[in-house]
């Protein structure tokens, strides 16, 4: 398990629950860029410095090691950002 490329430890940084993974620190995904923000970035006037965490999980299933990258981050209240 990695967050932003940094390996995480089960029981310390996260726990596995019936509904997924619960992390000890808050994670966030940058929402969609609006027209004006995209335009400012395009012309080099501004950048995007919002929090944009990435979660990757490596696991074993049927005797094979598998890797899933860029998992969706859902806040504890169940509402997804940008919706």
Describe this structure as you would to a colleague:
It is a single chain. The protein is mainly β and 83 residues long. The protein has one helix at residues 35-42; strands at residues 2-3, 6-7, 14-17, 20-23, 55-61, 64-68. A 4-stranded antiparallel beta sheet has the order 2-1-5-6, with no helix packed on it. A two-stranded antiparallel sheet has the order 3-4. β1 and β2 form a beta hairpin.
Write the layout of secondary structure elements.
Blueprint: E1 2-3, E2 6-7, E3 14-17, E4 20-23, H1 35-42, E5 55-61, E6 64-68
Antiparallel strand pairs: 1-2, 1-5, 3-4, 5-6
Main attributes?
83 residues, elongated, two-stranded antiparallel sheet, mainly beta, 1 helix, 4-stranded antiparallel beta sheet, 10% helix, 29% strand
Going across the major beta sheet, what is the strand order? Answer: 2-1-5-6
Structural class: mainly beta
End-to-end Cα distance: 27 Å
Which parts are unreliable, with pLDDT below 50 for 5 consecutive residues or more?
A: none
Question: Strand count, sense and closure of the main sheet?
Answer: 4 strands, antiparallel
Shape: elongated
DSSP, total strands? 6
Count of individual helical segments: 1
The helix/strand order is: EEEEHEE
Strand content: 25-35%
Rg, Å, rounded: 16 Å
Mean pLDDT over the residues: 83
Helix share bin: under 10%
């Amino acid at each position: 398990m990695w967050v932003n490329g940094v390996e995480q430890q089960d029981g310390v940084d996260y726990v596995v629950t019936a509904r997924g993974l619960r992390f000890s620190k808050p994670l966030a995904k940058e929402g969609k860029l609006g027209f004006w923000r995209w335009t400012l970035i395009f012309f080099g006037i501004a950048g995007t410095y919002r929090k944009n965490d990435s979660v990757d999980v490596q696991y074993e299933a049927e005797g094979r090691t598998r890797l899933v990258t860029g998992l969706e981050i859902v806040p504890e209240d169940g509402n997804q950002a940008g919706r």
